[in-house]
Amino acid sequence: MNVQYDAKILVKVEETENIYTFKLEKHSDFSFSPGQYVWVSLDGYSKSPMAIASGKSDDHIMLTVRRWGELTNALFNLSEGDLIHIDGPYGSYFPMNELKGVDNLYLVAGGTGITPVRSLLRSLSNGTHAHLFYGAQESIELLYKKELGKSNINVKFIIDKEEENWNDRIGYVTDLLQTEKFLQNSKFFICGPPPMLKAIIEFFKTSEINNSDVYVSIEKFDENGNVIGPVLSLTDPQVNFLKI
Hints:
By secondary structure, the protein is of the alpha/beta class. It has 6 helices and 13 strands.
């Protein structure tokens, strides 16, 4: 059931100059699945879809937002205690029922594409081992890095180019995939910007991995700002139709 309400900002965190995280009040009737999004709006501004980063059982809604227009500029100027209008949840979601009996879940994320991945990680049952490959252009844009590093998830980070004081991997997420020996009885979930998605989809389509075990969250919008990119299996014809 979709819920519309004014949510109080409980916590506001500056991740970078252009990325903020908001923890919002959660309405008692609000229920969602990892991979879904909400419409966010403020008086005087057009609404915008934003992916949910919190887990299903968390007592708040968490959104991590990149600056890209007037609405986000206005959001970034708000303070804890201010209200944001929420409408949702909407969109398709990662098929959690497909994880029953699965030993390993491989997650691939780029940039702010980590938000629905975080939601999924926080909603997993204890029986599935999670492996995360996470890339960004700069180390400062590796969101939730400390949180992920302290978890029991097998995490591999990578950034596009060398930085001072960066002692981890340099390159692209596909570089991590090409050297990985994937375990049996696994599922895969991918979320990130279109250039990354295109390269990773090509990797999986030319690999020996069963493409029906690979799901991709395609963040595409129509001319009216409506989300048309659902969570799809690589075997779904829409993956080609959407032309990432």
